[in-house]
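Lab channel / #folding
Pinned by the channel admin:
"Please post every new chain as: sequence first, then the structure tokens as a reply. Keep commentary short and put observations after the output so the thread stays searchable."

First post following the new format, from NK:
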Amino acid sequence: VSPALVSKITDRIMPEVREWQSRALDDVYTVVFFDGVWFKGRSEGKIVKKCAYSVLGVTTEGKKDILGIWIADSESASFWVSVFNDLKNRGVKDILIACHDNLTGFSKTLETTYPRTENQLCIVRQIRNSLAFVNWKDRKAVAADLKRIYTAATLDEAEYQLEVFRERYGKRYPYILKSWDENWFELSVFSKYPDAVRRFICTSVGRSLIFSILLTQSLFYYFWALMAIL
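Reply from TO:
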């Protein structure tokens, strides 16, 4: 497909895209997944990387809906502020649970717009980051012991398993415990919910349509083409 054809098609459907991006939203969403995904695109004859901010919400009726997509040069808490404000201006008054990775400053910036929202950090990314520090020969055992923490039936059991992990690996891998301790409050929010809800909210990875599309597209001729496809 030529760049000219992509541009022509994009120009024809962009009015609908803009209308979709500015549509009114529900007052309340039970769960909202916030995710930033990097992709490559062509800008002024050069190949550059951009970040696509995607927001997927779950309505009070249980329906999933992409609330919006924003494209920026990088992922930062300051840009997420503009996303939160846009959601609020389009009618979102409250979010019960926000699922996201541990981007610096995200939770605090979200609190300025939605002070009652609970933050659940992505467990999958927490595990991935934890194992990055582990020797290859220890990975299987460490992963199994970490699993006992996030699959515990109750918060008390999860805290107990965290202490067991501390006794076994505290001296060998102190940086893993440091991360879990610093983020425990937002890592353990899902523990108080039923199993079906826990499985749903404990990860932000791959929840949005944009994530699956970007996995299959290595390059977009124009960034607006990405919006048009989505």
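NK: The first strand starts at residue 28 and ends at 43.
TO: also worth noting, Residues 90 and 212 are 26 Å apart (CA to CA).
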